[in-house]
């Protein structure tokens, strides 16, 4: 092969593969090559026989990074070998955050509980606390950098009434033969929570990932949200079921077209009291070690 096989299509395919499947390695490589230490994300924007260009960023700033290879790539295979070698080089040891406390994190994970709405106070929750939970959610792992998780936050009384009107339409469709008292019980339960968060999944249309991976990404995002809520003294519950995931309700939130989905509602508020610890399966019952 020669440089003639380094077509724009092939270079574009290499670039997309790196951005979709090796974004973390790209970021680490850029830092090892002298890129900014503050960068939290990276995306290769151009790739050619002589080098590559990337965009790096954090929550407040971004910068352009360029790297030239020691020698131009002779052909597609040579370019691939250079990229693999470059991104496989030993990286600097990870530096833990100075204030990081693994024991505190473990306590939050162990203490996280699902609070029924009746266990929540009706007191309003400051928006800053809610936003911190949602900000934690957006850092969830997701294959291919699809970021499929979406959220709609409902806190105002009029917004809740509009949603409740839609729930009443959906109820007989989701639960044929339901009894009226079920609807009243449902109303009392959900209006007991000051914060409602609709959980949506909105996969990428172009070059989609398997649906189970997108579902896993949303689940991890909700776990991040729930852990941050627990760390701030908030209780929460991820409710699913035929009503909270009904397609008509999904359409209400703007997720009407498959593969978009509504995956439930997260009810959140200050807990009335700490719940008693739960008993979980032993580690030994869940893990098998193969060391020989």
Automatic annotation (TrEMBL):
InterPro entries: DUF2470, Haem_oxidase_HugZ-like_sf, NAD(P)H_nitroreductase, Nitroreductase, Nitroreductase-like, YdjA-like. SUPFAM superfamilies: FMN-dependent nitroreductase-like (SSF55469). Its cofactor is FMN. Its EC number is 1.-.-.-. Keywords: Flavoprotein, FMN, NAD, NADP, Oxidoreductase. Residues 109-269 form the Nitroreductase domain. GO terms for molecular function: oxidoreductase activity. Residues 15-86 form the DUF2470 domain. PANTHER family: NAD(P)H NITROREDUCTASE YDJA-RELATED. Belongs to the nitroreductase family. This is Putative NAD(P)H nitroreductase YdjA. It comes from Meiothermus luteus. The gene is ydjA_2.
